[in-house]
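The passage that follows is intended for readers who have already worked through the single-chain material. We present the inputs for a multi-component assembly, then the predicted structure in tokenized form, and finally a short commentary. You are encouraged to pause after the input and sketch how you expect the pieces to fit together before reading on.
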Amino acid sequence: MTETTEKKKRTQIPRQKMPEQDPKVRAKNFDEVPFGYTPELAKLEASRCLQCKKPTCIEGCPVSIDIPAFLDLILQGDFLGAARKLKEMNSLPAVCGRVCPQEDQCEKVCILGKKGEPVAIGRLERFAADYEMAHGEFIMPPKAPPTGKNVAVVGAGPAGLTLAGDLIKKGHQVTIFEALHKTGGVLVYGIPEFRLPKAIVQAEVDYLEKTGVEVRTNMVIGKIYTVDELMANGYNAVFLGTGAGLPTFMNIPGENFNGVYSANEYLTRSNLMKAYLFPRYDTPIAKGKKVAVLGGGNVAMDSARTALRLGADDVYIVYRRSKKELPARIEEVHHAEEEGVQFHFLTLPVEILGNEDGWVCGMKCQRMELGEPDESGRRRPIPVPGSEFTLEVDMVVVAIGTGANPLVPSTTPDLQTNKWGYIVADPETGTTSKKGVYAGGDIVTGSATVILAMGAGRKAAEAIHKYLTE
Amino acid sequence: MFPIVEAKPLAAAVKQFKIAAPEIAKKRKPGQFIVLRINEEGERIPLTMADADPEAGTITLIFQELGKSTEQLGKLKAGDMISDLIGPLGVPTHIEKFGTVVCVGGGIGIAPVYPIAKAMREAGNTVLSIIGARTKNLLILEEEMAKVSHSLKVSTDDGSYGYHGFVSDILQNVIDEGTTINLVVAIGPVPMMRVICNVTRNQKIKTVVSLNPIMVDATGMCGACRVTVGGRTRFVCVDGPEFDGHEVNFVELVKRQRAYLDQEKLSLETFRHQGGACLGGKS
Ligand SMILES: Cc1cc2nc3c(=O)[nH]c(=O)nc-3n(C[C@H](O)[C@H](O)[C@H](O)COP(=O)(O)OP(=O)(O)OC[C@H]3O[C@@H](n4cnc5c(N)ncnc54)[C@H](O)[C@@H]3O)c2cc1C
Ligand SMILES: Cc1cc2nc3c(=O)[nH]c(=O)nc-3n(C[C@H](O)[C@H](O)[C@H](O)COP(=O)(O)OP(=O)(O)OC[C@H]3O[C@@H](n4cnc5c(N)ncnc54)[C@H](O)[C@@H]3O)c2cc1C
Ligand code: SF4
Ligand code: FES
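Having made your guess, compare it with the prediction:
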């Protein structure tokens, strides 16, 4: 066969679907939705890759994974080799394979996507990482000789974990300080079990601990120690990866009624505190029958799908723009639709109504229409006069975004923040206005993605290493 | 893991624990609290630090057995471990020389008032304290409060000890006697704090209250603890727990505290049914 006919044949293989739980069944449980590829499916999907001379997919990946190389290893049946290839650039492939917006990154620019469907790079990333987790052994990564330098990492989210993994390999002593009782950041308190099993995050953290990173949970920096105290206690550098964990509300009347949750609270109760297993676990959660989720991003989809699983009959996404502008990943919107989440587009909540006991009993809304694009490039929603109506709901989850938690900046006077409270840091190095203090992830950029937070951690690790050794 | 160093009953269904937490003990200031989680299945429960001993590395917690988690906590003994302890949390009490400070504590609220009274005295204030409970065997820290106060008055709702009536009645009397009061600090059940604020409002006496809404993370991330103060939404875990009592929307606070009543009952029943209560040898 000539190379061109071989290529042609490959392009005729359709993109392989990932087997997943039936929507009706899964809408009632917290188990992971997709089952993942079998080795056969993985090989078949990997065989679609054209092994391009100039692989555009790598450019689309924020951490430049050598995608054709790991796909080829899968094709050869060397699944552990594929996982190791991934880990050269990405320390959390099992996480990224599940939650990265691949359709906007590597898969968006895959050559195959020009005519047909791109290679399912994300699904294959997940496959290789899972295979390693099930079959691989722990191999101690090569470590540089000890430098005698100590680094404090504040926050055990993707940014902090990535940075810690990089710096320990370079011979520095690393301690992670995490406010919550569990590590993982949004991965454990925000993203639900059915999308990202917590055991996967824990396995990654266990791995880090085995390599020598010290993890101290239950430590709220800014309270137990300020950044200055950390430095006085012998840390030569501090990395702030505290995330964007401040809930935003709509600032409409009625938001303090019972049954009105921030998405952070709703998801934290359910994920981190396992309220879906109440009363075996002690944390309760309100189980609305008719639930409105305000917003249209991933967080809104996660909240809506959690509400279904907690037993709601009707779950509405209330979004002020149209379906086209939904910021959530297409796959997540699709999953939500399949499971029965209902969408109210072009709808703006204006007031939450409550009963005598202080519980939500409805929500006043107004219809919107789209005008000219605003600064964000999306068409601006404009209220339609006289279009008010009441949506009958008994629970509301506000998922309209988050802000910067002020705990660390407010106790670190010489740390520069911008007008929204985010820490000002060089995007290439994480350098802040304070000597020896670096920052990265959502606390610098505002809510972004796991892979971007990891990228920021990686860059800051480089810069800190330079700072400590030069 | 955090070992319990000492566990002793203080009054009916009220226990005092000393827990080894050296780093927190060093940092803690009056008005601050911790969050603890008994074990893997446990919820995060906030409790005020009634005291701390930086040398011994211990903090003192005083809590009332109200529902499942506090009842389960109450069954632990010296030598047992608590899975998680997070602190110190919250803004410390603003301590300075105000002049005459009246410290009012109701029920379990006497526990958080105690370190404040002590610090106010150390700052050179004249501390007049008023403490009360529903009935005599629920009264705690009388001796300790007496030691740190220039004067101490005690009330019980049922008249079984001290003045027969409410702490707010005593405060009203103190005001009526013409005492100049520069500050009132009142901590206790929400209805009590509300009445105290009504007493001081007319007199325009600045009144600080300590609020205890339901919390989850207690780091400002979830918003569960929101209260309306002066028409604005505030987060008690990071903006408080103390606020100007004349500005607090107590009605809303009471409703929000009751949000999980049914589930809390279920949780407690399940716990007791599984033998929780029997272990402690309670009737
Ligand atoms: C519900 C939800 C769904 C999402 N879905 C996706 C998705 O599908 N794909 C995707 O790519 N991204 C998704 N994201 C975004 C992604 O999770 C974040 O961009 C990413 O986690 C940011 O990483 P980080 O390390 O900067 O911060 P975080 O993950 O927020 O971690 C910060 C950590 O710091 C800790 N901390 C904060 N303050 C302190 C302090 N003072 N002391 C000590 N510790 C502190 C916090 O407790 C937390 O553990 C989602 C976010 C949410 C909320
Ligand atoms: C800042 C702060 C300091 C506190 N200090 C003390 C203290 O020093 N001593 C003490 O006895 N109690 C204190 N509390 C109250 C204590 O946290 C609750 O009594 C405890 O959480 C009840 O848990 P439970 O499961 O035993 O009871 P439940 O049956 O769950 O609840 C009984 C009642 O306690 C309240 N409550 C429930 N869960 C929480 C929660 N997570 N956070 C706050 N309140 C809750 C509610 O009003 C509820 O109706 C404090 C609360 C706060 C917010
Ligand atoms: S762009 Fe697509 S086809 Fe080309 S190497 Fe990358 S994954 Fe393979
Ligand atoms: S308890 Fe979560 S913000 Fe206060």
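Commentary: The two ends of chain A are 56 Å apart (CA to CA). Residues B 215-218, 220-225, 235, 237 surround FE2/S2 (inorganic) cluster (ligand 4) (CB under 6 Å). How closely did your sketch match?
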